[in-house]
Amino acid sequence: MRGSLTISAVAHLIALALCVVAFAAAPMEAPMPPTMTVNTISVKEFTELTKGIKDAPKLKVDEIKPQADKVDTPKPVDEVAPKIVDKKPEIKTDTAAQQQQPKQDPKPADKPAKAKPPDYKPDKIAELLKKDAAKQPKPDAKASPDTPPRDAAKFNADQVAALLDKRDPQRQMAAAETLNNQPSLGAANGGAAQLSQSEIDALRARISSCWSPPAGITASTKIYVVLRVLFKPDASMSHEPVLVEGSASALGPALAESAKRALLMCQPFTMLKPEHYEQWKDLELKFDPQELLGG
Amino acid sequence: MTLVRRPALTVTRRDALVLGAAAGGLMLSSRYASAVRIDITEGNFQPLPIAIPNFFGGADSDNDTAVGVTQIITANLKGSGLFLPIDPAAFLEKLAGVDNVPNFPNWRTISAQALVTGRITRQSDGRLKAEFRLWDVLAGQQLDGKQYFTTPDNWRRIAHIISDAIYERLTGEKGYFDTRVVFVDETGPKDRRVKRLAIMDQDGANVRYLTRGDELVLTPRFSPSTQEITYMAYGQGDPRVYLLNIETGQREIVGNFPGMSFAPRFSPDGQSVIMSLQEGSNANLFIMDLRSKSTTRLTNTPAIDTAPSYAPDGSQICFESDRGGRQQIYVMPAAGGAAQRISFGDGAYSTPVWSPRGNYIAFTKQTANTFAIGVMKPDGSGERILTEGFHNEGPTFAPNGRVIMYFSDNVGSPGPSLFTIDTAGRNQQRVPTPSYASDPAWSPLLS
Predict the structure, then answer these.
(1) The domain boundary residue, chosen from A128, A153, A179
(2) Are A99 and A196 members of one domain?
């Protein structure tokens, strides 16, 4: 009696344990939202960063990793910052700070503060730095308010042009290690910001001028279709548009066909610029006649 | 907790997690590699350019029929206002046969978006075979293709059926071409009009007279399910409601009520007739079941309630009543009950009729010096006037709810004629009738 009770209890426990393991509710896997590196700063910090005042807190730039928008071969990073002859040890700290800059370049706001025209007299700066190094360990922010008046005489246009040249940050961004996964404007490679709003509007106007919705739809039917279109570089369609989404309705096929006819009639869409081909080669067009019907 | 043991097919927690992660990864990769999405919300409702070359005849003797079918299809589609048949003189390609694939660039050049080819062949057993193909010129593919067999004298109906198939495929809504219209044919001088019931195809062909003209007839209506018509006739004495079988010609009186009975209509199931019965100086709505002959009262007001019409789902009735002092339109539940007024404009509203689609009630509106045909939503909102004139009256809906037929008289004209207009107020067309015509009623689709 005792033995069987024990066996029964053990068997029940095993059964319970198995069930807990086997029938544990699997968590509902929601699609993960795209990750985005966020650096939170307060409003005060942001305004003061852009202002560039002396006691603006230094951005913790080490934590920010630059993200490449395109996968590209790493290019040799140009050192915009000058090579400083390290005569004085004080200047070494400066150089060290400046050599960090190429890696941290995607902060154009910081750039004018950090990069310096090369032809200033190192000794003058060294004195200043020696003075200030004693006060606070922030030579970079220190140097910037002082250098502009000092170096007005040694103004070098090329270096200023290098500072203003917006291409540099992007070139160096291509050399970063991690790929930017955040979809911006929906393009897989994240460069869609370049497809201008005027091109989108022109495309929309052209398609609208060709589109004649089927007669059967009324304001109460509330239907729409989404067609996926792949374009050739000459802005004509590479093959027939494909229906990817649509509301369930008896009028759906007629609406989809009217949309396809509009696209077939209106191609090629020459308002799309060839240099933005990557952004418009794969489009989804949602045909929604609700506004047209006043619904 | 009940322990239901499922051996061997259990998914362990680890498996579930792995699957979930894989699914999440899949979802991530597929869902977020999405393209730019642009919304197109504007367009223009344009008639669709369609090319309809003459149908082929299987033998030379069939050519006349083939040409006739082509002409009916062209007229139907053009008359609907939604299609623009292209002039055959502009065609670039002469097709070899209905089974040949057309050379689409030739048709694209003339701006055709759709192409219809077909063939009519007399079979050896005497039947007529009609076939057609509908092509999408821009996409370069066939959209539809059908074959019909019928008796040779039904060739007009085949043309209407093919028109319906083309219409439905390209617009998404059902067609209305294979239908008939029953109306009151009027002949003779104005003071001695002879009124006969007549039935014809919706395009005005095949007119047949159903009564002899020795009594005045009014408001004929089709049954939704059978080949019967109900109408009101002034025989010897009071006006009465009759049932007429179109095929056999048999006539039957609906109820034997004291006083006048008028304004009959069928219920959506075709099993009862709703009408207005006179009681003294009032008129109230009654339903009579056609099989059991039992009558049910629906309204009991000291007013004239008339012109009832069922909603297509049979749940409500709209009718005309002057209980408020002037003729207005009311809606009430089909079993009777509180009636709600839905017409509030300036004028007298009459002859309400509910659209087969259920979205509109059409009516006649009379103001000081004009008659107008309009539509409003069943709750009374969105009132729109479609046509105005000296005397427009008696709207009836086509089975797809898109087109309305009515009759109209002009100042000083000798008699009324039938017209059609679509519910957007466009494409007004005259329906040809042998003589003057009034009180049209559209049949349901015959096929």
Answers:
(1) A179
(2) no
pLDDT digits (tens, 9 = 90+) for B44-72: 888 999 999 999 998 888 999 999 999 99
Tell which A residues from 92 to 151 touch B, by Cβ distance under 8 Å: none
Quick: pLDDT tens for B206-250: 999 999 988 999 999 999 988 899 999 997 778 899 999 999 999
Cα–Cα distance for residue pair B298/B331, rounded to 1 Å: 12
A102 Cα to chain B: minimum distance (Å) = 31
**What range defines the domain where residue A135 resides?**
43-179
The verdict on a CB contact (< 8 Å) between A186 and B170 is: no
Same domain, yes or no: A130 and A208: no
Q: For tokens 């290019």, what's the residue?
A: A75
Considering the domain architecture, whether residues B235 and B376 belong to the same structural domain is answered as yes
Does the residue A186 lie in any domain? Answer: no
Q: CA–CA separation, A195 vs B301, rounded Å?
A: 69
Residues A158 and A250 reside in one and the same domain: no
Q: Is residue A22 part of a domain?
A: no
CA distance B19 to B10: 14
Taking CA–CA distances from A221, the nearest residue in chain B reads B359
pLDDT of residue A100: 47
- Cα separation values, B51 from A257, B92, B116, B131, B138, Å: 17, 11, 6, 16, 13
* Amino acid type, A5: L
CA dihedral sign of residues B104, B122, B199, B397: negative
Nearest residue of B to residue A185, measured between CA atoms: B36
Q: Which of residues B14 and A3 earns the better pLDDT score?
A: A3
Nearest C-alpha of chain A: how many angstroms from B46?
A: 6
Residues B363 and B434 grouped into a single domain: yes
Measured in angstroms, the CA of B383 and the nearest CA of chain A are apart by 15
In terms of Cα–Cα distance, which of B172, B107, B121, B170 is closest to B143?
Answer: B170
* Portion 147-176 of A in contact with B at CB < 8 A: none
